[in-house]
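Chain and conformation:
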Amino acid sequence: MLLQVPESALGLRVFISYSRRNQAFVEAMHAHLSACGATPHADRALIDLWYDQRSIPIGEDWKAVLIDGLLTTDLVMLFVSPNSMQSEYVRQEIALARQHAIPVVPVVYRAVADDPASLPGEAWDFYTSVRRIQWIDLDGIEPPYTAHTNFDLLEAGLEEAWRVKIDRLIGPAPDAKTEQSVICALYKTDHPWAVRYLDRQIETLMRLSPPNPLRAQYYAHALACIQAQNGPATWQARINWWRAEIPPAYTQLLEYAARRPIPPG
C-alpha cells in the first residue's frame, strides 16, 4: 500500500513578523502571497502563511499559539521598516527563530536611514544584524500594494525555499513509496511550482551517469497528466526534448509512463 503524504504537508509554512503600524501593507501582502500559493483545492496550498491576525483562534493564549506557529514554520518573513525595527515583539520573534535555526527572509517595506541616529540604540543594533541578510527590497511600494518590480524576486525566493522543502521531504536516498506519494500529491496541486519541480526532477534523473529512468518515469507520469490539461503542444514540447536529449530506450520508457492513467485527486 502506498505511504500517503498529506497534501497539506507540501505547503511552505511562512511566519510573518511585522509591526502592527504597517498592518495595511501586511494584509495586502498576505492576500498576494496566498494567491501565489493557491491551488484549486484549499487544503493543498503551496504557501501556508502564519499571520497573527488570522492564525490565532479567539479565546486562545495568543503568546503560546504564536510561539508554536513560529517553531513549526519553514521560514520567517520579516517585513522591515523603522517601525518593525523598534518593535520588541519583532525582535523577540527573530531572536527565537535564530535560536532554532529557522531561516529569516527580510522584505523591506520602508527603508531605514543608514544613520545610527535614525533608530534607538537597541533597534539600530537589531537593524544592523538584519541588513547582513540578503533581502528583497519593496521600498516605495504604495497602496493598493498590488505591484512592484521586485515581486518576481520574492515569489522566486519562496519557490526555491519550497523546492528545498520538497527535496527534504523526499530525501537524498528516497524510499520508493514515499517518493511516489509525494509525486502523487504534487500532481494533485496542479500548480506551476509543481510542474517546474517535476520537470526539473526528470531532467536531473535522466542526466545522471547512468540515468535513472525508473525514478524519472514517476515524475514523467505526473507531469504528463498536469501538462495534458494545458494543451497537447505543451506536452509535445517535452516529448521532443526527451527525444533530442535522452537515449531512445529511456525515452520510450518515459513516454509509456506518461500514458498510464493516474487516479483523480
The first helix runs from residue 23 to 37. Residues 37 and 47 are 5 Å apart (CA to CA).
